[in-house]
Amino acid sequence: MTPETFVDILREALWLIIVLVSIMVVPSLIVGLIVAIFQAATSINEQTLSFLPRLIVTLLALMVAGHWITAMLMDHFYNLVERIPSIIG
């Protein structure tokens, strides 16, 4: 196994992690920002007010993108399995 092959596999895996995590985190961050602006404008300092909308948006994002996330993970796994001969020999 050459160092270039290892770096390529690591780069692809890290990019996949960044994409999959951002699918779940970015909508939650946007909703958290909107709720925080609303709380600042109305002077409501309730901590639980921001939790429920973020939870619901995160679960909805997982429900909507779940099939795509699974497909990307499976494609990456199949790619790794197909590379085994070139990695070993």
From TrEMBL:
GO terms for cellular component: bacterial-type flagellum basal body; plasma membrane. InterPro entries: Bac_export_3, FliQ. It is found in: Cell membrane; Bacterial flagellum basal body. Keywords: Bacterial flagellum, Cell membrane, Cell projection, Cilium, Flagellum, Membrane, Transmembrane, Transmembrane helix. Coiled coil: none annotated. GO terms for biological process: bacterial-type flagellum assembly; protein secretion. It is a multi-pass membrane protein. It holds the Pfam family Bac_export_3. Role in flagellar biosynthesis. This is Flagellar biosynthetic protein FliQ. It comes from Psychrosphaera ytuae. The lineage of its organism: Bacteria, Pseudomonadati, Pseudomonadota, Gammaproteobacteria, Alteromonadales.
